[in-house]
Amino acid sequence: MKYIVLILLVVSSFSLSGMCPKDTVKASHRVSFKDSLDGAFDVSDFLATKKGFIVIPGIITNPAVGYGGYGSVLFIHSSFAESKGFPTITGVMGGGTENGTWLAGVYHMQSWKKDRLRFTGFAGYTDVNLRFYGRGFTDLLQQYKVMLNMQAWAVLSDLSYRISDSPFFVGARYVFVNNDSKFSPSFDLIKEDYKSTVSELGVVFSYDTRNNFFSPTKGIKGEINYQYSGTWLGADNNYSRLYSYMFGYIPINRKNIIGLRGEYDVAFSGVPFYMEPFVTLRGVGLMRYQDEQVFEVETEYQFPIYKRWSGVAFAGVGDAWGTSSSFFEDDIVVSGGFGFRYRIARKFGMNMGIDFAWSSDSFAFSIVFGSAWLRN
Fold this sequence. Notes:
By secondary structure, the protein is mainly beta. It is built from four helices and 16 strands. It has helices at 2-15, 44-49, 80-83, 139-143, and strands at 52-60, 68-76, 89-97, 102-112, 117-131, 147-162, 168-184, 193-208, 219-229, 239-251, 257-267, 293-306, 309-321, 331-345, 350-359, 363-369. Strands 1-2-3-4-5-6-7-8-9-10-11-12-13-14-15-16 form a 16-stranded antiparallel beta sheet. Residues 1-28 have low confidence and may be disordered.
């Protein structure tokens, strides 16, 4: 599911910050959390030298599931200095929110051959409660509150290979989901129970010229992912999906940066409703705007405030269409907001901060490590 991918990316990015070091491996020298240049709080030394166990707490603020938190216990196999910026990490995580939503899982990320080969994997269970708005713009579902409970086992694995020394990658992605959904109340348009098994195999082409994996100030990242589900793979249905995105950063000068992002996703006939694309702008609820096709664009402006502190202002628009509406007809959402960033690891160019976002019908704040558009 797309939301499982998002959770994995958020947790993976948070885990690298090392904000709560409970290292069980003795370091070769005393680690300082003060920068040698300005004396400010900085975790560069920790990231450069440490390996072992750490415990990472976090918060969940999505409008669809409410407020909550999660925790992650990680084992960092190699320091940043040893891994050249892409550490090998194995983690166990779990979390929940005020409306009864919870998840638990394990994940692993690793690179080989001087970052020529990359792997990301996740396996877990999730029990999600949220309001169901249906595919497209359905008047009945706008007027009457229908709740959706999804209980699912999920596995995701992604293996990519860098082509020569170029910024181009090619890879394979496998997604397995065993899902049991229940609607309350149910009526003619919706069955009370919906069970299905998804087994997808896909090919991924990507391009990456970002100057920093976590907090880039220039460069482009793009990806095209085609997923196929077949009964011969163990799935209930034969169908396919196509996901594509591109984002980039344009420096006005060293401290003022403009960011642009675009995404287009399409699901073809036979896709289970929970695998169809949905708008993922900041401040928009999970699966709130969902249909056979989704298009969204977003821009942000990063600017300096004081010393290590900077600000960000952002705005975006998204649309979901295909079932009962055409492009930019009904399911349109506009979002925007502002945030703050702190340069938490100067030597690695990493920022951490918080975003406050408003959309057409909701508000959310989120903790951000690196970029809000972080992709592996």
